[in-house]
Amino acid sequence: MTEPCIQRSFGRQAFGSDPAGYDAARPAYPEWVFDFLRERCGLVADAATFEIGAGTGTATRRVLARGANPMVAIEPNERLAAFLRETIPDQRLIVVVAPFEDAVLQESSFDLGLSATAFHWLDEDPALMKVARLLRPGGWWAMLANEFGNSSLPDPFHDATKGLLGKPCNPAAGRGDVPFALDAIARFAAAVCPTRDAARRVYAVTNGQIARL
Ligand SMILES: C[S@@+](CC[C@H](N)C(=O)[O-])C[C@H]1O[C@@H](n2cnc3c(N)ncnc32)[C@H](O)[C@@H]1O
Question: Which ligand 1 atom is the nearest neighbour of the CA of 9?
Fold first, then answer.
């Protein structure tokens, strides 16, 4: 994989200069995403859930509304973490202020893990290994990503702006022109799990499709 010219560690601070402004400008994820998590990924009442890179809670609120309990939001940026606490007064929410790599969480204790447009800031291989360790047998892992640069879909905005942005210059860049989030082969290749059972617990959800290892 080509080394991105923005370092992944930059993502820990990149989004926190104006949490309220960021929150106001950020588009909501479609409702079907959360229906899908409920119908296919065990997001039911009291599903023990963790989220990597919760930001201002764009996905967190919606997952809480579907019954997640506890909802462990892992967010390294202190200002974003404070925004989460202030704007989501819900006892089920636990905010862990740390990068996922350093977060101390109980293994085999979660029914669902997710990351919404944030996983590209982490080194995928060790992060997925840790995800697998945190999930209970039969638990689910979901990666949500806004699509940008999917050559199989019409995307006039991407077509109009790709010349300005140049070659992939961010941590989401996968092999060639395919972002990691859209590259099923790269995602599965990254999901190297210590045991077959652990591998079964790793799932990838992208673009309305689900794949099971
Ligand atoms: C593009 S924002 C997405 C925020 C939110 N999930 C959303 O959908 O609006 C990426 C988030 O990942 C967080 N992040 C970056 N590196 C991280 C890491 N190593 N561990 C956990 N979160 C990280 C950032 O602080 C930021 O909140």
Answer: 16
* Angular region, 55: left φ>0, alpha ψ -120 to 50, beta rest: left
E-strand ranges in the chain read 49-52, 71-74, 93-96, 110-116, 135-144, 203-206, 209-212
Q: For the whole model, what pTM was predicted?
A: 0.81
Q: Domains in the chain and their CATH numbers?
A: 8-147+154-208 (3.40.50.150)
Q: Ligand 1 — pocket residues by CB below 6 A?
A: 11-12, 15, 26, 52-55, 58-59, 74-77, 80, 99-101, 116-118, 121-122
- Atom 10 in ligand 1: which residue has the minimum CA distance? 118
Report the pLDDT averaged over residues 39-66: 97
Q: How far is the CA of 183 from the centre of ligand 1 (A)?
A: 20
DSSP state of 133: H
110 forms beta bridges with: 135
Task: Give tens-digit pLDDT for 167-204.
Answer: 545 555 555 556 655 665 555 555 544 444 443 444 44
- Looking at residue 50, its pLDDT comes to 98
